[in-house]
Amino acid sequence: MSEQNNFDTREIINAGLITAAVxxxxxxxxxxxxxxxxxxxxxIITVGQVWVFAPxxxxxxxxxxxxxxxxxxxxxxxxxxxxxxxxVSLALVIILQEAFNIRQFFINVSPSLIEVxxxxxxxxxxxxxxxxxxxxxGLLTAGFLMLPPRWKAALFAGLAWTFxxxxxxxxxxxxxxxxxxxxxxxxxxxxxAIQPGVALVxxxxxxGIAYQWRAGKTAVSHRISGFTPKQQGNFRWVQIGFGxxxxxxxxQILGTYLSEVTNNIGLFILMGLGLNIVVGFAGLLDLxxxxxxxxxAYVIGILTSTGSLGIAGMNFWxxxxxxxxxxxxxxLTLGTPVLRMRGDYxxxxxxGFGEIIRVLALSDVLKPYIGGAQGIIQIPxxxxxxxPLIKPEQLYYVILIAVLLAVFISWRxxxxxxxxxxxxxxxxEDVAEAMGINLISTKLLAFAIGAAFSGLSGAIFAGxxxxxxxxxxxxxxxxxxxxxIIVGGVGSLPGVAIGSLVLVGLPExxxxxxxxxxxxxxxxLVVMMLAKxxxxxxxxxxxxxxxxxxxxxxPDDIETLATAQN
Length: 566
Description:
It contains 24 helices and 6 strands. The two termini are 16 Å apart. It is mostly helical. A two-stranded antiparallel sheet has the order 1-2. The protein has helices spanning 9-28, 31-35, 47-67, 72-100, 111-117, 123-145, 149-167, 169-180, 182-188, 196-225, 229-281, 290-304, 316-335, 343-362, 367-370, 392-414, 417-427, 429-434, 439-465, 475-488, 493-509, 517-531, 540-546, 556-565, and strands at 39-41, 45-46, 189-190, 193-194, 383-384, 387-388. Among the domains are: 1-146; 237-476, no CATH class. 73% of the residues lie in helices and 2% in strands. α1 packs antiparallel against α3 and α12 (290-304) crosses α19. The protein is globular and about 70 Å long.
């Protein structure tokens, strides 16, 4: 990108107005007030206030990255303009509410919101406080972006860990009480927030560790690169062994509630790995993926239920491969008529297939067989040696084995001849066909394997809940799975896990903010497409294509900007 020492002031003002519109919007719809009920750092900052300033931080980062200006004065000027315009707009909300009671038009502009925006102050004082705070945030963001990459990465890590611990203080406090007693928990957390002194210590310690981490990591990597092949193999096995030990003891660390959340994440990872083959590897946009999830669940229900709809009374483990086979055949059935379709046309057809399955599950025609809207109940839990896996900590291991199996298969397929054929087809079907790739078998295999993973997830889901209903298999499930692939990184196996943690795990833990869950989905997707379109953990191929090979914890375009300035 060419350097621009001059910038259009009108463009920056427009950016400030957009930022102000976003900040005011999330305030007047009630989002800020709801999130303000949770402190991050006790008595200092709430989640709601972070949301007020988040648009400023993002817009300053985005504009500075876009313009690539060398002058530090002009960078501070951009940060100040965007922050000041947003601050004026938020200050007007306070003033207008005091003067005209605009709550009759915007019901969420309550006294509580005014106090949040004004940091406990109202009237002129509150409007002045939010103006100064917004301007300061714009200036601080500009200053942060001018820091050397190593300092920037360290400070970013310190802030992320401090705010992260504050955000999840509720569950962390519960685990501390379990292992170390209430006194330790109270010393660190208070009223679902981290103590200010503890927050400062966490920030300093994490920043210091992160500052030294990059140099230490480089030294370790250099030393490992000097290992003999045998030593490198032994080191890899040590890493694998450590990972296995952590995964085996994880339920004992997490407890019942977090184990249940982990199980939900695991089911979406399973589905994500399957859709990643279809979308990420083969480039086939499938919006009806939930259909295979539903088929796996219903097959398990029909074959194992002890209720009136059960037809065989099978053991879960006997019915499981049958559910996977049925889902695989359904994938072939879907793939056959859409072999010549691409892009939007393929997406619409697969969307229709998913809706057909959902409508059939609800219909009176199949009600005598699959229960209709009443679903299927009395599905037994999976059992080992006659002992049912009732607790989430027990079922965790079933899901873990399924996920590891799916990861292994996906990893082997990605590097196989079939995987290379999928990727060639993803880039250009015509060229792939000209090179001798059989598009028919290649597409059908992608649909079949992806459907098998989804059916496996659905089968475990049915055994986990012991009952299934049609409303559990709506279009939103397909959208969620596709979204987590996009957020994590299309075509990336670790990206599927990261995307599931972000889009499935976080909403489960932060259920008190469930009212704005879909809004947050949209915000995350928009931000990802603008700031990091390759995903949070992109595949190696995507990394090379976009030239983003750094791993210092800060977006590479920020680091590029800082490097140019220094």
